[in-house]
Amino acid sequence: MAERGERLPAPRRVLVTRLRRIGDAILALPVLDQLRESFPECSIDFLAEEGPAQAALGHPAVDRVLVLERPRGLPLPALPGLLWQLRARRYDWVIDLYGNPRSALLAAWTGAKVRVGPARRGRRHFYTHPIPPVEAPLSAVAHHLRSLAALGLTPEVGTPRIALSDRERDEGRARLDAALPGKSLRVGIHPGNRWPAKRWPEERFAALARSIPRLGARVVVLAGPGEEHLARRVASGAGGEEAAVLGALPLRAAWGVIAALDALVTVDGSPLHAGPALQVPTVGILGPTEPEIWFPYRASDGHQLLCREIWCRPCNRHECARMDCLDWISVGDALAAVSRALAHGGAARAIA
Q1: What is the pLDDT of residues 121-156, one digit of tens each?
Q2: For 48, which of 14, 96, 195, 207 is 20 to 30 Å away at the CA?
């Protein structure tokens, strides 16, 4: 946590921004929970681009979700209509959890007397409470909560929670039932990531899909945008053990499917955080990523981390010629982790 600052007067209106990256927006949700717990009467808005904004929709701590569209051809950080809204809301606090030039400009534009954000380069001058960097690895959840500590609060590190409506859960369950009818346990596999260095080999995902039925479960391969071909190859590699494929779904519809699973297996990416945030036991296969930062999830909730200590990790590369960090994770390792997740019995899952 950041060094605790002086406790400030309770705000009437707060804006929290986490403009980009869906997984990071999910990891920012505990900030909203802590704000609501500390200030029950406060109005809390959340600002992000369209994808990340989905993480806060329906969240009980949020009063208003604002979507940032990139202005094309205009030298502005946001469209004029949104800029007017941000100034008119007269926020007391703005908490910028991203800290890029656009989010720093938007924080300053609001005119809020209290503005919190990362102390990066010249952007630190846009904030009244710049947050210094940390040297030791800190979980992404704890890192976001440092912003509240700087304002005199004493936040507790919690697990993010995505709030799905009953309808979204019912529709997700119906989609999964149509793909995998019957009463058996159901495991979702999400093999895709846009960065090659974060992908466990697809032939191992196919071998895992062939092996999971030994645990008394069936497999559905999940695909994000542009990942449908990969998902079909993994499913076809399951051989005689048929694996279903579900893809091309809107983000919250895909989350509805994940919420109906008994376990999820995924590489690094937004599904790695959606699973735990939907209280589904999640097996995370991590390569160059630092698990201390990006896998803040407990085995006691059914979550399983597969990550090998290796001399070159963490490198945080997007591409790599060797891929030893992922190559050293075997199908047997993954199958054992799935078994442990299923043995958790779904106790970590939300009840609609």
Answers
A1: 888 999 999 999 888 889 999 999 999 999 999 999
A2: 195
Please report, in angstroms and rounded to a whole number, the separation of the first and last CA atoms in the chain.
Answer: 34
Q: What are the φ/ψ torsions at residue 125 (nearest 5 degrees)?
A: -75, -10
Look up residue 293 and give its two tokens: 């930062």
User: What is the distance of C-alpha 122 from the center of its chain?
Assistant: 28
Helices 101-109, 80-88: inter-axial angle, 10-degree rounding: 50
In the sheet that holds 43-48, the strands lie side by side as: 64-67, 43-48, 13-17, 93-96, 114-118, 129-131
Residue 110 makes CB contacts below 8 A (sequence gap 6+) with: 15, 86, 87, 89, 91, 94
Give the type of residue at 251: L
Q: Which pTM was predicted?
A: 0.94
Beta-bridge partner residues of 45:
15, 64
Alpha-carbon distance 138 to 129, whole Å?
20
Q: What is the Cα–Cα distance from 268 to 15, expressed in whole angstroms? A: 28
pLDDT digits (tens, 9 = 90+) for 196-223: 888 899 999 999 999 999 999 999 999 9
* Distances from the Cα of 153 to the Cα of 161, 168, 293, angstroms: 21, 34, 22
Task: Report the distance separating Cα 207 and Cα 149, nearest Å.
Answer: 46
Can you tell me the distance from the alpha carbon of 202 to that of 193, in angstroms, rounded to the nearest whole number? 11
Contacts of 352 (CB under 8 A, 6+ apart): 164, 166, 169, 170, 259
Contact residues for 39 (Cβ-Cβ < 8 A; gap 6+): 10, 11, 14
Furthest-apart CA atoms within the chain: distance in Å? 64
The pLDDT tens digits for 150-182 are 999 999 999 999 999 999 999 999 999 999 998
Identify the residue whose tokens are 């990139």: 70
Q: Which of 39, 92, 84 is nearest to 66 (CA)?
A: 84
Please say if the pLDDT value at position 48 is more than 90.
Answer: yes
